[in-house]
Fold this protein.
Amino acid sequence: MSRFWSPIVHTLDPYVPGEQPKVLDLIKLNTNENPYPPSPLAISAMKAETGDSLRLYSDPNASELKSALADNFQLAEDQVFVGNGSDEVLAHSFQAFFQHTKPLLFPDISYSFYPVYCGLYQVEQKRIPLNDDFDIDINDFQQDNTGIIFPNPNAPTGKALPLESIKQLLAMNRDTVVIVDEAYIDFGADSAASLVNDYDNLLVVQTFSKSRSLAGLRVGFALGHCDLIGGLERVKNSFNPYPLDRIAIKGAVAAINDTAYFEATCQRIIESRDWLTEELSKLGFDSLESSANFIFTQHKKLSAKVLSQKLRDENIIVRYFDKPRIDNHLRITVGSEAECKQLVSSLKCIIESS
């Protein structure tokens, strides 16, 4: 620790991102990246932007991207906010909506950046336990709060809350902002984006990192009432007016417009997820029903920690969480068909030799 740090820095417990090892021939199933490349149209659009125009600042409003997103979700441009990855969008949301006198509510098993942001922005937090089936019970969120945030599908469980339940949650909390963090929405759940025009307290946050295969580009966005978007814009323009570069804007616009490629890759991942879930079951795993591009699972006999290490020895990495309630589970990203087959083959050998 440094004597030059401000007092708040000493108290922070930073987010630990998924491991990004530099290992050849690694099967990387730990950070929920898309196993397939970005849209060829997106690659082409980004290459075309790498010229003299890079000497100029990007559009601080990212109007071209906002227009494409507004058209895609049938909203107005002033209902769209864009940022440098969904994590930045979430960070601005914590500053814009949650710095009040009551606690922010979120599930106890959830995206681990939420408590980090609470520490950074001095937001009181209250973690609401998932039930024994790892489901969110919306009735538990009917209490005083400065806001509510949760992933849908939830991470790391992969379980999704139906739209009807989200409607009830919004209706029960009309005086505070409810953020639905939809990083994995395109792999089998229903987006709350369809509710934006009905609830002025709803903010839907999505990313291009998962279903659009653009994790390395860092593009996220939010959809909500123009008053919420206006608050985010005020925070953004007090922090960094140019969160997206020219290449990112062009690539994201092309990706959102390439519907056929997007739908094909999502379907491919869904089919691999279903196949992998069935194969894991044959090997003695119990998996939660997933609507995401990952599977949350535990073996009936072998510990998750041991399995994680033995897979690493086979050059396969999955995510192990050494945390209460989930310390015997693995979160396995759905890889390509070939990667899924290799995972199953390696697990079979590990289990048979144990």
